[in-house]
Amino acid sequence: MAREKDNSIQLGAMKYTVPKPELVDCISKKKLHCSPLSSAFVSESRRKGILPTLLREVLGARIMVKASIKHARASKTDPGCAPVGPEIGGQRHIRLYQRKLQREDAMCRGELGDVADAILGKGRETLERAITLVNEGNYGGARVIYGDTDSMFVLVAGATKAEAFAIGRRIADDVTKDNPTPVVLKLEKVYMGCVLETKKRYAGWMYESEDDEEGVLDAKGIETIRRDTCPVVAKVLERSLRLIFTRNWRGLSVYLNTKLSRLRDLPYTDFVFSKEYRGEYAENAAVPQRKVAL
């Protein structure tokens, strides 16, 4: 928090002075916590914060919705039920609101820049500590191959599905114990086959429990789920990924040869895409909107 020459603190629209006796009392009773970027916060027992309260309620709602979706997927008693997707029941709106609270405060730098920096800094510190714990721990040779914000991907080479779940639960429990309440690391899923393209762009053959007999394709940020890509790319990529993750190499070869040989027979609407042209690209960048503009 920005400190003025008169020892007052500027936080957003507020400007106040912390009484020295209160500050000394917080330090002596270890009720003061400093973020990696030197912003200081009192403990919850001293004063409960507004943002943590909001986040607990929003996160609780999101967990409840995800649990309901998982239960609906598992219970196939009613054949007339519609398929349950990952973004129904308001989950997408809850997720976006949660991210707005916990991470994208950084966009409001003019008002609460110190709070935004503290959130991002603490999140990074927590993630790095978890990565170190896994890489230096005894988890059957497991190592972190990707980490971003509040999640990490752990490679357990050669493990079966059951072994991967067992190791994942151990890691989740140990990371949770290494952090203060209410920080919790949850094992969400196991990928038996995964493609990490770039940051926030990946796909995998997902199992949510050991009891899942058949995996499902799970994709984040790639063309199969993006609205700005052309339909033919989304369809071909999704079908190809399914064949790759199920190791149907012969089927993949036949499918691609057939699809590519019939591209000219497809309607032009299958080739329409919508992307922003930003004007500045590397000379060898393979960006569709750049090629069209040139």
TrEMBL record:
> Where on the tree of life does the source sit, at the highest rank?
Eukaryota
Cross-referenced PROSITE patterns = DNA_POLYMERASE_B (PS00116)
Membrane-spanning segments: none
For this protein, what is the EC number? 2.7.7.7
Q: From the Swiss-Prot or TrEMBL record, what is one GO molecular function term? A: DNA-directed DNA polymerase activity
Write one Pfam family the protein is assigned to.
DNA_pol_B
Keyword Nucleotidyltransferase listed? The answer is yes
> Which GO cellular component does the record give, naming just one?
nucleus
InterPro entries hit by this protein: DNA-dir_DNA_pol_B_CS, DNA-dir_DNA_pol_B_multi_dom, DNA/RNA_pol_sf, DNA_pol_B_thumb, DNA_pol_palm_dom_sf, PolZ_Rev3
Extract the signal peptide range: none
Which keywords label this protein? DNA-directed DNA polymerase, Nucleotidyltransferase, Transferase
The UniProt entry, under PANTHER family, shows: DNA POLYMERASE ZETA CATALYTIC SUBUNIT
Q: What is this protein called?
A: DNA-directed DNA polymerase
Organism equals: Ancylostoma duodenale
